[in-house]
Amino acid sequence: MKLQHHLGGLEGLGPVWTETRVFVEPWETRIFGIHTAMMALSSQLPLPATPSAFDTIWTWADLRKGAEGINPFDYFKYRYYEKWLGGISGYFIEKGYITAEELDALTEVYYADPDKALPGGGAAAIDERIIQYLVEGDSPKRDVPVGDVLSVGDKVFIKNVPTIEHTRLPGFLRNKVGTVETVYEGAYTYLCDTGPDGIGTPMPVYCVAFDPQELWPGNAEANFILYADLYSAYVLPADVAEAA
Amino acid sequence: MTDRFKYREDREAYSAARVRALEALLIQKGILTDKSVDTVLGYFETKMGPFNGAKIVARAWVDPEFKARLVADTPAAVAELDLPAGMAGAEGEHMRAVANDPGVHNLIICTLCSCYPWPVLGLPPYWYKDPTFRSRAAREPRAVLAEFGVDVPESQQIKVWDSSAQIRWFVVPERPAGTESLSESELEALVTPESMMGVALAKAA
């Protein structure tokens, strides 16, 4: 179990941080830009080939796996883009694009001289593809038959699937019962196969309504409803679950 | 015990140097160009941002039929407006709007990460990405909203939407009272990213 999969409902955390800025330090803009460029150049996308030396896959799933894999104390300790910087640097080292030694050495150089210029150059086609990705996106919708789907109003039981590295099933919904609010049209893949957790192939997705008093009996506020979008691999019709 | 509970004294200077070193290496090795990062950042300054969401909300305020279409089929309604290309692009492929009314206040969260509708709202503010917000808003949204200065009466139902699959959500806040004489472009100026995620109300200037 990873705490990062079970954040919803966690107690004892103190006041929220109401900071409305997107970036609180100028350096954070750079790691955001690097991440988004990597997503645009990721090798699985059906976009034009470029001269970029980047030839592996980088998606939100990779970024999320990194954040979900770190020590939960560090997850709360570090700001959002500090975690990105650690995860993305680690990816480039792990995949052999750069070495830890050269990153450390060059960090010292820029630490000593923060105004030292960046290198220049690069093919325009790389940046054209980045724009194309932002404009076109990467829809997970797939045109495949979906078979039997649930209906609005159906009661569903949320499975406690054997998640290992990554999931899109929030922990606080596991083993709970909800009601289908929306059946999204068609079928949706996920960015990677999550193995025994169960998503990755095209499947229906439902918006499911939950009564917070059933999620946290006697310990949730009154007069609200919590909705979550859930892949069909995570839900069972409640009558089927009861019979099993 | 390690220094897990301490930060480097030069925390920000070190991260600034490290991200610059990383960008330099990626340019040197032909992965990115010297313009790639600025290309991304420029795009979010001019094409994808909360200025688009503000136009959508202002139109919904002046045109109730548009508002009904926006809630029923968000992508189709957004496509009616003269917005930059890419409103169904990255992180906007499948969007859904929910509208506040006197009986219901909507709040968007992402308990697993920080899913956010880039084309219409740009990038998520820090409050949205913070683990404390993501944890608490699921169980005690009224207390969380009070910390943002929004008092939702017990009689008004709160709907919390957790962005855990493909949908990127946003809120159509209520039009503030006393704005009947304002033009659509004047109304746009009243719409903040926070009001379009549910932690603020739109207010008359």
TrEMBL record, chain A:
Residue stretches making up the Nitrile hydratase beta subunit-like N-terminal domain: 1-119
Gene Ontology terms for molecular function: nitrile hydratase activity; transition metal ion binding
Keyword entries, A-Z: Lyase
Enzyme Commission no: 4.2.1.84
Enzyme class label: lyase
Top-level taxon of origin: Bacteria
Catalytic activity, reaction form: an aliphatic primary amide = an aliphatic nitrile + H2O
Domain Nitrile hydratase beta subunit, chain residue ranges per copy: 140-235
Family the entry assigns: Belongs to the nitrile hydratase subunit beta family.
Role summary: NHase catalyzes the hydration of various nitrile compounds to the corresponding amides.
Database matches in NCBIfam families: nitrile_beta
Name of this chain's protein: nitrile hydratase
The organism of origin for this protein: Methylobrevis pamukkalensis
UniProtKB/TrEMBL annotation, chain B:
Alphabetical UniProt keywords: Iron, Lyase, Metal-binding
One Pfam short name: NHase_alpha
E.C. designation(s): 4.2.1.84
Catalyzed reaction equations: an aliphatic primary amide = an aliphatic nitrile + H2O
Classification lineage: Bacteria, Pseudomonadati, Pseudomonadota, Alphaproteobacteria, Hyphomicrobiales
Residues covered by the Nitrile hydratase alpha/Thiocyanate hydrolase gamma domain: 15-200
Protein name as it appears in the record: nitrile hydratase
GO molecular function: nitrile hydratase activity; transition metal ion binding
Family: Belongs to the nitrile hydratase subunit alpha family.
Binding site for Fe(3+): 110, 113-115
Domain of life: Bacteria
NCBIfam families, per database record: nitrile_alph
